[in-house]
Amino acid sequence: MGKMVSGIDGLRVLVTAGGSGIGLEMVRAFHAAGAKVHYCDIREDEGATADLHGVTFSLADVSDRLDVERLFSETIDRLGGLDVLVNNAGIAGPTGRVEDIDPAEWDRTLAVNITGQYNCTRLAVPHLKQSQNASIVNLSSLAGRLGFSMRTPYAAAKWAVVGFTKSLAIELGGFAIRVNAILPGSVDGPRIQSVFANKAAALGQSVDAVQEAALSATSLHRLIPPQHLAAMAVFLASQEGSSISGQAISIDGDAQVMV
Questions:
Q1: Domain-located, residue 59
Q2: Domain CATH for 85
């Protein structure tokens, strides 16, 4: 990774929800490229990054503004500033027909998936304005480009991430801060298997049938390795990615519809 891109060595990076899944791959990729990385997660650090020398951790829920204030205090204290914010934190939200969704679950999904990005961004921007290579990478979803039946809270939030990203890119471009969104498709790992299982239960189908339907709607017909998303985040933060801003970049195996 470090040989493929330049300008990452020494960058100060904050990754939200970096303790597992996509977030953990982001932490690993930035660290491998020479960045100084701090990450947060809603769960206590369970040693996922124990082999990554110098990576530091905060316990934080991005939907809780007091948590986020403490997170940024700890981040700046440990990194000495900020060059890259990766707004990765997100939850799957409920699966069900809109009339059956618990309003509290709707509220929680939006609180984490879009308001959480605002909570972090508003505190990051003053520090990013002082950076010589500043960028924000927001995690949206294929659901932020296509409609997603039975997952309306998640899809609504992920569409909002794209609007947030494009608006921020315009607003912050004069400060040389780049803002982009990554839109993953079905990413390999426990989370997508849980999503498939919940949808299978809601539809009365097998998990295999739900997964096959999802993959059959893509040209490449496969799950997305989380490392590919991490590689894109590192590229967007690099000198080679320094002309890219305001983009919603899909990494989804060329999905045509969401099933």
A1: yes
A2: 3.40.50.720
Give DSSP secondary structure letters for 194-217. Answer: HHHHHHHHHHT--HHHHHHHHHHT
Q: Catalogue the active-site residues.
A: 154
Q: State the Cα–Cα distance between residues 22 and 242, nearest whole angstrom.
A: 23
Taking CA atoms, 52 is separated from 25, 28, 44, 104, 216, in Å, by 12, 8, 17, 38, 37
Residues 6+ apart with CB under 8 A from 132: 83
Structure confidence by residue, pLDDT tens digits, 227-256: 999 999 999 999 999 999 999 999 999 998
- Evaluate whether 138 touches 92 at the Cβ level (below 8 Å): no
> In this structure, which amino acid lies at residue 242?
S
Residue 193 amino acid letter: Q
Task: Give burial (CB, 10 Å; 0-12/13-18/19+) of 212.
Answer: middle
Number of domains in the chain: 1
**pLDDT value of residue 259:** 64
Q: Is 216 domain-assigned?
A: no
Q: Is residue 80 part of a domain?
A: yes
* φ and ψ at residue 225, rounded to 5 degrees: -65, 135
Strands 12-15 and 84-87 turn out to be parallel
